[in-house]
Amino acid sequence: MSGELVIRLSDEERFEAVRVLDAAVADGRLTWDEHAEWSDLVWAAKTEGDLVPQLADLAQTASAQRVVATISKVIRTPEATREVTARATFGAVVLNLEGMRPGEYVRVVADAFCGKVVVSVPANAVVIDEGTAVMGKRGIFGAARGQGGPVVRIAGRVTMGNIKVFRGHA
């Protein structure tokens, strides 16, 4: 055995690896069959070294933007990205995505612990919420107007906090 310390993966690190696979399917770099096969390998992985072969050729072409608020409030208008990671811990993250155009896609991984994440999207946006809540709340406000708008996919976990998505007034 080598003298190198090997640290086991957490479930959150495995979830993040599956998010990379999800993005690869959305970008057309993986099929759903490949996604299923690779997801099984991700969940079976014990260390980061076990994940490298599965994810090495799936590096994101456009880097994800990261917004973190800890006991504070952060307001951002992300641009030119396919993914935004927002984490609020005893604070608030406010994301303004109202400038998105029809046909654009963004994935927001919103995690809140005793905090909140607020996302503003265009009035015609298609919002898909696939996240979870534990003693928290998730809500999408405002009826979708029209068709063919941008797609915003919301993932992540709320614990004793909330995530609110508001459709714009345009």
What does this protein structure show overall?
The protein has helices at 11-26, 32-44, 48-55; strands at residues 65-70, 73-76, 83-89, 92-96, 105-113, 116-121, 126-129, 132-134, 137-141, 151-155, 157-159, 162-167. Helix content is 22%, strand content 37%. The chain is α/β, with parallel strands linked by helices and 170 residues long. It is globular and about 50 Å long. It folds into 2 domains: 11-58; 65-167, no CATH class. The strands form 2 sheets. Strands 1, 3, 5, 7, 8, 10 and 11 form a 7-stranded parallel sheet that branches. A 5-stranded parallel sheet has the order 2-4-6-12-9, with no helix packed on it. 28% of the residues are buried. The chain contains 3 helices and 12 strands, in the order αααββββββββββββ.
